[in-house]
Amino acid sequence: MTRLPLLSLLAVSLCAYAAAAQSTDPAKPAPGNPAGSPSDTRETVPGVPAPGQANVPDRAFLRAAALGGRAEVQFGKLAETKAASEAVQNFARRMIHDHSAANDRLSSLGAHVNVALPPDQLDPDHKAIRARLDSESGANFDKEYVNTQIADHQATAQLFEYEIGSGQDAQLKAFASDELPVIFEHLQMARALSATLAAETMASASRSPN
Amino acid sequence: MRSHSPAVSCLFGFLVCAVGAFAASLPPDGSYRPLPAAPFDEVKGDDEAQKPQVMQRQRHLLEERYDLSDRAVPNVLMSGGRKTVQGGVRVKLPSGVTWDSLAKLSPDEIRERGVLPEGFFPLPHVKQATGGQVFPNEEIDEIQRQEQRNLRRFDVDFDLPDHFTPEFPAPIFLTTHPELGDVSRGQLVTIKNFYELFVGILTPVQLEGMRLLLTPFPQEEFNQTEDRKSADQSLGVTCLDCHANFHTNGAFHQTPDVRPQAARFRLDTVSLRGLFNQQIHGSKRSLRSVEDFSQFEQRTAYFNGDQMSAQRKGVHLPNRFDQVPMMAQMQNIIDFPPAPKLDPTGHLDPMKATPQELAGEQLFMGKGRCSSCHVPETAFMDNNMHDLQLERFYRIGQTRNGLVILPDGPIKTLTLRGIKDSPPYLHDGRLLTLADTVEFFNLVLGLKLSQPEKENLVAYLLTL
Asked: For A181, which residue in chain B has the nearest alpha carbon?
């Protein structure tokens, strides 16, 4: 066993936390597969990673979730003013609200696991989406926004599931578990919106003379 | 092991979506099994340290969901006459509702109020993040005794109490010898005893098929590499370690068909009885022949859906034109247990059945609509998959002991022949008794059955 035991003093101060991380409550984050914890993981007690000990999936999750969450807010702000349909505007407001709250929690978790979040700008993937959103207007903008929201929330749901299964830090996993049902709610809303927009396009096409 | 400052950015490629959008793609170990990040003895040490907590979490979950007490149905035994059948509804109700008040609510109301009984939710693996095959203690002990082969894991134990597993060892009925009845002689068939038990009863082809089904090969959790969960370098696992005596011992695993890991639902081993009548195999994969299933099972380390990882641990590639058909032919002569009250069309013989059983059959064909999928004439199956859409009743994406609760999607109609012999029920074993299954379908199909009607249905199911 080469995993470094924490200084006992520190361990005492972390007692309350360790109790939570070791919870036998099935609603709390479940222990990960220790095969996914690198050797230099510090442990409060054997088998329980010390708070803030992130493994590779934790880091990958943190980065992708931070980039995605910020893009959601940015696109939401754009859509709030630019969307033609009121339903899309409302959806955008909901995205701003929910993702802002999640982003705040994620920032504090970044500090907790001592991982610097990427700089506050769009990554190339989301930049490409932004460029397309900028170039569209009216009903086409609405469609583009809603469809990219569907794709983004699909990927996000899988990402959060990935963290729940492969992550190591209990707080990050708890964050992913708490947010996942909300992400699915967003996905369902976006899918419903997309269907509504498509139906409206059909209806207006059949109304037009040719 | 210290160089974990990964170029995280390289984990994010591009995913071309149907809509033409780009979104960050997921890390590769979302699909592929990662190599262990620490040496074996460290992982084992951590696993052993976690084990008490892991078992307690699952025990809490089970106790929250179910009444786990040992209450057998009077005067009913499984087909080998060696084990009682557990009775009564075991799924616990949330406070403030009864089964009748629940049945009056619409799916939307049940979802909004959050009152779907916990026991109806998908059942997590005992350690979801690790997953893999877990054997009941009876099987582990008997294989140890006969073969000195170790099926015990150091990270988890089997989670359900013994009285909710199938009879062990199960009786074996052969289509080729109905006149003999159970040919197991009360023993667990293994590589050590199969020859003396079956020479003179089986053909050479069947004997060779059986030998292959009883030969251990390396598996995801039982192999010689550091990525294993047995203390010693394992000799591997045989097909019949789960399908004990061609039935099931309740061993469980996770579906190979879903990723990432947190979303992989549990799979309860199915019986191989009556396989000869089935057109589709696996609750989700819908493989079209026993040959395909047998071959594939070996290729991907029994259920991990990961040919890469299996390759590393040593795969067995049975010859398709020689060995695979023999394995299939052996499996294809395993019969259902006798059901003395059923006539040749699968209907109750009124001379033999009780009034209650006959009333149950009426419900099965009528108000209960069971026979629209469980067709009596075709061994209570329809060789189709159906989406029961349980997610109408709950909010998706919640986590239960590491399992993300998601819609099951279409699942194969499981046979009901010999059903009293194969608890727990549904593909993941989330229901412990037949009375639970009746409450489940009462809600899912919106049947609004009365209490006496539910009891009649259970009485009928026990005759099958």
From this structure: B397
Tens of pLDDT along A110-134?
888 888 888 878 888 899 999 999 9
pLDDT digits (tens, 9 = 90+) for B67-115: 999 999 999 999 999 999 999 999 999 999 999 999 999 999 999 999 9
Residues A132, A76: contact at Cβ < 8 Å?
no
Give the global pTM.
0.91
Total CB pairs under 8 A between chain A and B: 192
Question: Min CA distance, B82 vs chain A (Å)?
Answer: 34
Strands B14-16 and B252-254: unpaired
Shortest Cα distance, chain B CAs vs residue A156, angstroms: 9
Q: How far is B80 from chain A (nearest CA, A)?
A: 37
Domain edges within chain B? 27-64+131-336, 66-121+339-464
Which residues does chain B have within 8 Å of residue A123's beta carbon, measured at their own beta carbons? Answer: 12, 24
Residue A144 CB: number of other CB atoms within 10 A?
Answer: 20
Query: What separation, in Å, do the N-terminal and C-terminal C-alpha atoms of chain B show?
Result: 57
Determine the residue among B126, B404, B405 to mutate to test chain A binding: the one whose Cβ has the most chain A Cβ atoms within 10 Å: B404
As a whole number of Å, the CA-based R_g of chain B is 23
- A20 contacts on B by Cβ (under 8 Å): none
Global ipTM: 0.89
The CATH architecture to which B66-121+339-464 belongs is Orthogonal Bundle (1.10)
Whether residue A38 and residue B37 make contact (CB cut-off 8 A), yes or no, is yes
> What distance in Å separates the CA atoms of residue B267 and residue B128, rounded to the nearest whole number?
12
Judged on CB neighbours under 10 Å (0-12, 13-18, 19+), B327 is: buried
Domains of chain A: 51-204 (1.20.1260.10)
Interchain CB distance below 8 Å, A48 and B41: no
The 3-state DSSP class for residue B406 equals: coil
